[in-house]
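Need tokens for this chain, all 564 residues.
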Amino acid sequence: MSIRRSGDLHEYTDLKRRSMGSRKTQSEMDWLLILCSIVHVFMCPFTKVEESFNLQATHDILYHQTGIQEYDHLEFPGVVPRTFLGPLAVSALAAPFVSLFHVLEIPKNASLYLVRSALGALVLWPLIKLRKRIQETLGQGTSNWFVFITVSQFHFLFYLSRPLPNTMALPLVLLAYYYWLGQQHGKFIACSAAAILIFRGELAILLGLILLGEILTRRLSLLKTVIIAVPSGLIWLSLTVLVDSFFWQRLLWPEGEVLWFNVVLNKSGDWGTSPFLWYFYSAIPRAMGTSLALVPVGMFLERRTLPLVLPPLFFVLAYSFLPHKELRFIIYALPLLNVSAAAACSRLWENRTKGKWRTLLALVTIGHLVANLVLTGFLLMVSRANYPGGEALSLLHKLESPDSKISVHIDVLAAQTGISRFGQIHNHWIYDKTENLKAGSLELRMFDYLITEAKSKHAYNLRPYLETHDIVGHVEGFSHIRSSYHHFPPIRIKTKPCLFILKNKYPPEEPDFSFTLRKHSAEILKDQVPQTEVDVESTNYSEIQESPPENSTEIPILIQKLDD
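Here are the structure tokens for all 564 residues:
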């Protein structure tokens, strides 16, 4: 009896030790996801024009609160309206920390990191829950490899904290996956309805395919689907109409207008088109890296991953019919595809001691992670050079005293590549983004500083400022990639000047910081600033023109979006 009890105690102790070790491993995997996400935030803190609405809306909720008339979207509404529910959720999470920063007198641009971290936390929470569900259904090995693969890839973690409409929908999509794998159909339908009606209507394809599969396999009845889906849809639709009508100052359903614009009017193609199979031969390979080759292996070795892979593949195929394509549009497909790749890695790694060939295959799984990390590091450095606007405004803040009363005009390229209201750290400065002002115009010469696009300091559009402004700084942006076997590493990221900071040598004696009044009083400058014509002897031009000649080779710098 004592021997049996001793054996039982030993077995219990061993089981407890294994359980504690398993929980420790799970915690380490979760922290790995968190830390890698933070690295992406700090390496590329600024945002692009696609992220503008959600970021500016979050800023306005935090800093203007109920002062709707001061919100950015009323001045720059964008092509289609977007919902405020995402920014409200992010703001609610970030508000206590932003308030603390305000009390500690930490500059407002630090709040950008808080907001992006808050959004990242909203995505990481369901992602970690999904990892745990994968462990429950496919084992701890697959769960661990799922994390390794996810952090080794660039795009998912890069987008995870970026305030894009797709990212705003991502927490609900990941929660829907979590409830789907746990056969919690009611919660799955509720999360799917919210993601579709509030954030991204095209998710009806992806989540609808999953729902259809559950109905066809008789794990869910059609009657139960209707009973849950109809009230869920009415609740979420009423919520978005109510909230967004208040913020937009008119009755609307934002995602309904987006669907009408993109699907019915088919105007998304105005922003560029790509071939039908672009997602399959370009977007998915770049997003998954070398892990893509392991997806079919996982489907073969672990048949339970087959129902997980088919819905995202059919979703991408269906979404390919829209002419305008971007990688972020299919970001929701990556986690499910990664599950299959993780299952393959787990199986190959577990069999590493069963022969030389299997040992070699196990080493391939490690090698593919290394290859992914090298690609991720390279893309992260390219992306870091893709936000010259944010860098230019930060440079200006270093060049000028914070106590000065300054007005600065920000041109289109600068505004689209990193400048947001979070970067406007001085309340007594004037930050103006008025578009379609001609180079050298009297309105532009009312500003103390200009952040303007130019190919070099000798560029044509800077010539009207030769007599009136000094170039006090410039910022370089991504230009191209150069390969050379004579250097290590053999691939180099090349940059070139794209934004220049110009300081007005003849600011108005009594500057008027109301741009509306500046428009009416621009003639005041005529007696203070030299005429727009410049010295013919020094420039070899007889006159300064408002636009370049037809045969001019000066063109705007195009910052390539390799982070898409």
